[in-house]
Amino acid sequence: MNRKFLPLLLLAIAALFQSCEGPKGDPGPKGDPGDSYIGQTFDIINVDFTAANKYSYTLNFDQQKIEVLPSDAVLVYVYWNDAGNLKAYRPLPQTAFLTNPNGIITYNFDRTDDDMMIFLDGNVNLANVATDWTKGFEFRVVVVPSDFLKRTNAEVDLNSYESVVKAFNIDESKVKKISAQ
After folding, report:
1. What's the per-residue H, E or C state across 116-181?
2. Are 128 and 101 in contact (CB under 8 A)?
3. Most buried residue, 10, 29, 66, 162, by most Cβ within 10 Å?
4. Is the dihedral of CA 148, 167, 170, 143 positive or negative?
5. Do the beta carbons of residue 111 and residue 74 sit within 8 Å?
């Protein structure tokens, strides 16, 4: 009799635990199928580096309604030239070697929780640098949530703008433009 009763008891216990449910949780936020993992991507256009602005441009995130969390990675690329029908972007910092005046200039950036600054530095008097190197620059900024960056960092070459676009599914037609002027 024990042998017949034991399988029935085990079956009853399994059925009891299988049908248990806890309280239903609150629904999560509704996602947009077009959303990607990117915090934001935007261009800063018409950037001039002059003595008047101390060879820099500062962008305040709140004023531009750009959400950047302290843990987010901010990637900045400078539009360097055209490669066929495409814009070629290079990651900052980016160095240029000048012949007149002889020297080196570097485009670089820093950021805080509130803003970011793109600046020009060099071993020459920046006032003597040709306007080709100081006027009308365009920068592409990609804000990546750090959790996503940790999961993909081994697979994504962050120095290659094309790799970043592909990995983070950036739709370049939807990139916001912010004019520095």
Report:
1. EEEEEEECCCHHHCCHHHCCCEEEEEEEECHHHHHHHCCCCCCCCHHHHHHHCCCCHHHCEEEECC
2. yes
3. 66
4. positive
5. yes
Integer angstrom CA distances of residue 114 from 52, 59, 92, 117: 23, 9, 20, 10
Exposure b/e, 155-170, CB count within 10 A at least 16 = b: ebebeebeebbebbeb
How would you classify the pairing of strands 73-83 and 102-111? Answer: unpaired
pTM confidence score = 0.71
Query: Going residue by residue through the chain (181 aa), what tens digit of pLDDT does each one get?
Result: 566 666 666 666 666 566 556 666 666 554 444 444 457 899 999 999 999 999 999 999 999 988 888 888 899 999 998 877 788 899 999 999 999 889 999 999 999 999 999 999 999 999 999 999 999 999 999 998 876 656 555 577 777 888 888 877 777 778 888 888 7
Any idea which residue has 């697979």 for tokens?
Answer: 155
C-alpha pair distances (Å), 167 with each of 120, 154, 173: 29, 11, 16
Structure tokens at 108: 């670089």
Q: How far apart are CA 84 and CA 51, in angstroms?
A: 34
